[in-house]
Amino acid sequence: VAVLGMAYAAVGRLSVALAAGLLFAIHPAHVGAVAWIGGRTDALGALWTTLFAWSLIGAVRSRGDRRALLLAGSVFAYALAVFTKEQTLALLPLVPLAFACFGAGTASGSPHGAVSKQGTNGVTTGCRAGGVELPGTGWFALGPYVVVTVLYLAMGVFLGMPKPPGLWVPLSEHIARAAETVAGYGALLLMPTQRLMHLFSLDAITALRPWPVLAGSTAVLGLPFILARLWRSDRVTLWFVALIALALAPVSGVMPLPFILFAPYRVSVAVIGLSVPLAQWALSLRRPVLGMAFLPAVATLCALAAWYTAQTIRGVATWESERTLFTVMVAHDPGAVVGHYMLARMAVDEGRDADAVRHLEHILDRLYGVGTDQHRSAGVPPASERGGWKWRSPAGAVEGLREDWRVRARVMQNRGGVGDAEDYLTTLFIHLGYSRIGVGTSRGAGTSSAAYSEAAAAFETALRWRPGDADANLGLGWVRLESGLLADAERHLRAALAADPDRADAMRLLALTLERQGKHAEAREYWRMWQNAVERASTVQMGLQTNR
């Protein structure tokens, strides 16, 4: 409804406004923002942005007290948008641009918002609000919006807003990925498909090089020429095209992104800008067909609506559960690390250790470039094997992260800019080690030794980065105990207890290890400690149940 009102205020045609509202409502890019609770910021951000644009356009085309009230409402909506979704900060230039595109120099009732013959500067001389003569220029009106922006940034600095991450890749590769991101978001906006709706990595787009790079570069470099042409012919469309470009600018990859290079829900706000020009274009297709000039326009609009609706309905079904979401995600985008990671976690919770191992190994293959030719084509150190690094050996895993910027970049792009790549990989290898133990436990004696050996390699890799990690030491101690290496098992289990003295499972395993070595007195002490820890845990659990 807000988009409908905004479109009508912009073009003054009810048919275009209805079509714009319809196209916005059913666009598949909104599915993730609405279905995912974390996407509330995107859904609310779209609402506040629409109200900001609607009241801004109304203010430019009003006078006196009405303009003052609408400008105040627009500033308030902009503040809500900024504090909901920081992506909205980039929309600040739309304020002075609105005065140039919707001011007295443009025809508000024109079908395309073309510049009228009365003037071309798009600036009014003044308006009266409460008896005070106020300049009607966009630069004057920009002041309150700038205050909101400065306040947000100041609060962000005070509260510890994360700084933009540095470049993890060479500049040329960064520019290529930004171009691919722009191409992907452009395709999602104009012709959404299930694959585009479930992309959470750039793998599928990068596989099509050089075409996505050329398409994205052409879009970015051609934008100034498009805006210059629209400035002379159709300033209303220019304003909405600028809205699309500014909404996508913060997430286009030009500025380094701290986490996930591509995410479909990020284009939700940009659909606001798309809906009006797209509706105008569809309804402008008037050719005599079967004696009806409006038939091509209606057919085009119906075709767009049918495609969007079908994609939206299919996309909604994806979000029925975590399992359906991440299963569909990795089916459309095998490089989506977040999808494989969540499926691995679910597999562990459900006791499907073999599935967890499969997903975790896929993640590590992807992070270390196994199965790709990137190393050979770029002349990366000869220590890397053909098609990736040998992460299954502790030395190869550590060397790959240390020597190859691609490995570190892939880790950080999926880990997030906060923290170290070593921390994320340590977590992955620990999960992999315990899952391999589960596989070995479920197999017969003839096959479990291989699984335990692989589990030990995973824990040893984690300890290369974090020697004092309690989980890694506990896991390796467990494997050494099962393999009969009692002295080594004791050493690692003691290290686990040193890192986490309350770890009951480490106490139990250490007691078993000491018993098998004949150290019965010390073993009895650890059995007693383990029993006390279990009783404390039971007491806490009973207290939680009582509170419930």
Query: Could you list the spans in which at least 5 consecutive residues all have pLDDT below 50?
Result: 107-135, 373-386
SS-based class:
mainly alpha
Largest sheet: 2 strands, antiparallel
Task: Round the mean pLDDT to the nearest integer and report it.
Answer: 86
* Proportion of strand residues: under 5%
Kindly report how far apart the N and C termini lie: 43 Å
Work out the helicity level: 55-70%
The number of helical runs is 26
Described by the principal axes of the CA atoms, the overall outline is elongated
Radius of gyration: 30 Å
The count of strands amounts to 2
Q: Can you list the strand order of the major beta sheet?
A: 1-2
What order do the SSEs take from the amino end to the carboxyl end, as H and E? Answer: HHHHHHEEHHHHHHHHHHHHHHHHHHHH
Give me the secondary-structure topology:
Blueprint: H1 2-11, H2 14-26, H3 30-35, H4 40-60, H5 64-84, H6 94-102, E1 127-129, E2 132-134, H7 138-159, H8 171-190, H9 194-197, H10 203-206, H11 211-233, H12 235-248, H13 270-283, H14 295-318, H15 322-332, H16 337-349, H17 353-367, H18 374-378, H19 394-403, H20 405-415, H21 421-442, H22 445-465, H23 470-482, H24 486-499, H25 504-516, H26 520-547
Helix pairs in contact: 1-2, 1-4, 2-13, 2-14, 4-5, 5-7, 6-7, 6-12, 8-11, 11-12, 12-13, 15-16, 16-17, 17-21, 19-20, 19-22, 21-22, 21-23, 22-23, 23-24, 23-25, 24-25, 25-26
